[in-house]
Structures are given as C-alpha cells and as structure tokens.
Write a structure and sequence with these properties.
The protein is an all-alpha fold. 55% of the residues lie in helices and 0% in strands. The protein has a domain at 3-67. The protein binds zinc ion. Zinc ion (ZN) binds at residues 71, 73-74, 76, 86, 88-89, 91.
C-alpha cells in the first residue's frame, strides 16, 4: 500500500480525520508532504470511497498475486492462505 493509499484509508477510517490532516503535528507524524497532500486531494476529488477501495483491492491483488494462495485450476484466490480447496470451482489440491 502506498503512503497516499494508507492515508486515504485513515481518512475513511477516522471520521474527524479531516480536522487532523490539516494540522502540522499530523503532517509531521505521518510524513505528509505537500506533494502527498495534493495527491490525496486529487484522488478524493475523482473517486468515491467505494471506487477507491475497489481499485485498491484490485491493485494489491494484481501486484501480489504470486504471493497469494490461488486455485491451480481456476486461479481464484483461496479463502485462506492454507486451504487446499477452492470455494469457486470446488477443486482440491495438495
Ligand atoms: Zn478454483
């Protein structure tokens, strides 16, 4: 997750985050540079909360697919990292 993505997740998580994001203390504690602040504002102007999360999940899955436990038959992500049965196609593997 990028710094911008993490800060936006915090933004959505904390209801009064907007009050804190403008304080110098918050900026220093979270490494919020003017460049990152601009990037966050640009993202929030163009996307809804749901769009942001959907795109974030898709990007993380795409970037880390090789690290995930995926079904060898249909390539969907398994329910847990240890399971050996696919919830999508019911394939079992060892
Ligand atoms: Zn499968």
């Amino acid at each position: 997750m990028t710094i911008e993505e993490k800060l936006i997740c915090d933004y959505f998580y904390f209801e009064n985050f907007t009050k804190h994001i403008k304080t110098q203390r918050f900026k220093e504690e979270h490494g919020l540079t003017p460049k990152i602040e601009e990037a966050i504002e640009a993202i929030l102007e163009t996307k809804t909360k749901e769009q942001f999360y959907e795109e974030l999940v898709k990007r993380i899955i795409k970037d880390h697919r090789s690290e995930l436990n995926c079904c060898p038959k249909c390539n969907e992500i398994a329910r847990t990292d240890k399971t050996k049965q696919c919830i999508f196609c019911s394939h079992n593997w060892q």
